[in-house]
Amino acid sequence: DADVTQTPRNRITKTGKRIMLECSQTKGHDRMYWYRQDPGLGLRLIYYSFDVKDINKGEISDGYSVSRQAQAKFSLSLESAIPNQTALYFCATSDLDKSGYTFGSGTRLTVV
Amino acid sequence: GESVGLHLPTLSVQEGDNSIINCAYSNSASDYFIWYKQESGKGPQFIIDIRSNMDKRQGQRVTVLLNKTVKHLSLQIAATQPGDSAVYFCAENMGRDTSYGKLTFGQGTILTVHP
Question: Hey, which residues does B114 pair with through a beta bridge?
Fold first, then answer.
């Protein structure tokens, strides 16, 4: 099983719909992140959480919300999806003193 | 290096050649840098990291060089193989505050290795 699992892998939704992307991890890491990837723009941070009671906005949080249900689970919601939220979304985890992130395989979201 | 607009920098090499991928970072206070590899359909994968108190770090077939004077990071891949074909991202940790662990990513470079 993957260390960081994202569901769904692919999703097509209509404008105005609410959608939730889920992320679970078996790494035992306290820190979790949601990034968005667009062609030519790299990865941009949406929200991050350093422990269960901690939620922080990233650089592009407008139009998104998150919930940290447990140490292992961090979900991303689009309350009312719009077409420019079409992108590849990645969840990642990290440990306090260890290097780097562990990424999930991504969720490809298309808003039509 | 960093790209402008929607077009990623690309690097094409022959199998067996050495590859050098460059990255310009933005924050002189950044104290930690990482290179990631992203293959098609997958999430980014950690390659190698370096802290700001170092100029060079070597791994297996990879070397990262850090030039703090010009805020430049490079990834050298020795004896490049077709399996090295991917998009490569640099990332920096923006500073030494409590937000340690929040990385900012570059736009990426596409490496294509020809057999």
Answer: B14
Interface test with A, best of B33, B37, B54, B104 (most A CBs within 10 A): B104
- Whether the per-residue pLDDT at A9 is higher than 80: the answer is yes
CA dist A22 and A29 (Å) reads 16
Distance CA A36, CA B105 (A): 11
- A–B interface: beta-carbon pairs under 8 A: 57
pLDDT at A100: 74
Residue A3 Cα, gap to closest chain B Cα (Å): 12
Residue B13 CB: number of other CB atoms within 10 A? 17
| Mean pLDDT, residues A3-13 | 96
Residues in B 45-64 with any Cβ partner in A closer than 8 A: 45-46, 49
- Please give, rounded to a whole number of angstroms, the shortest distance from the CA of A40 to a CA of chain B: 4
Put simply, whether B36 touches A (Cβ < 8 Å) is yes
Say how many C-beta atoms besides its own lie within 10 A of residue B23's C-beta.
Answer: 25
Whether the pLDDT of residue A58 is over 60: the answer is yes
Q: In what order do the strands lie in the sheet with A73-78?
A: A4-7, A19-25, A73-78, A64-70
Handedness of CA B73, B103, A45, B88 (dihedral sign): positive
Structure tokens at B105: 């990513």
